[in-house]
Give the backbone structure.
Amino acid sequence: MSTPVMIEADGLCKQFGSFLAVRDVTFSIPKGQVVAFLGPNGAGKSTTMKLLTGFMAPTRGEARIAGIDVQSDRIAAAERLGYLPENGPLYTDMTPLGLLQFFGSARGLSGARLRDRLDAVVEQCSLGSVAHKPIGKLSKGYRQRVSMAQAILHDPEVLILDEPTSGLDPNQIRGVRALIRELGQTKTVLVSTHILQEVEPISGRVLFIHDGKIVFDGAPAELAKQAGTLEDAFYKLTAQPV
């Protein structure tokens, strides 16, 4: 039996005026795979993720989550998807627990199911010590954990995480990496980053985007082999516009 495809981009293009931000991006990610979405700042990573999640409509092409077209049936796709945008908005006057209860109710969770999921994500994201403190008083690391908790609260099959370690210190980065590896045991995960050190510890596959176009799709070791190191490969792939 073939493994089902959980994330699929089919000829995705996004144009802003005369600027083509995403150019015919096509790839598929099967169930159970953790993929690093690598590229320099401004390459089109965040725009592609917004297209995949249905947050933004493509100029051309289609995006599917678990076989569901995110534009024609966005609610059904959202039920299968957890999305962590870069610098995701949080209600700073609320506590982490209050925020998670709010998002859980908005997603249709209630009663014992909601309590079980709250307990699970508070433990997974190590939020117990700050669960009742205002989010506005928390460090950036803890805010990122709150954002991660809301993304996995409804126990989705697919996770799309945009720069989840951005701005974190080394200890916080290690904690997020460990959580991503844990989640990758049961979920399909796409993680965007421009930090080379993030790639090998969390993923077995790299999608490299440059100038809005996929320029590499393969294993991290295969990418490094092209130029000797990941850093050299990164430079080589981004030295010229597509």
Observations:
- DSSP finds nine helices and ten strands in the chain.
- The beta strands are 5-16, 19-30, 34-38, 60-65, 68-69, 81-84, 158-162, 188-193, 205-210, 213-218.
- Residues 82 and 152 are 6 Å apart (CA to CA).
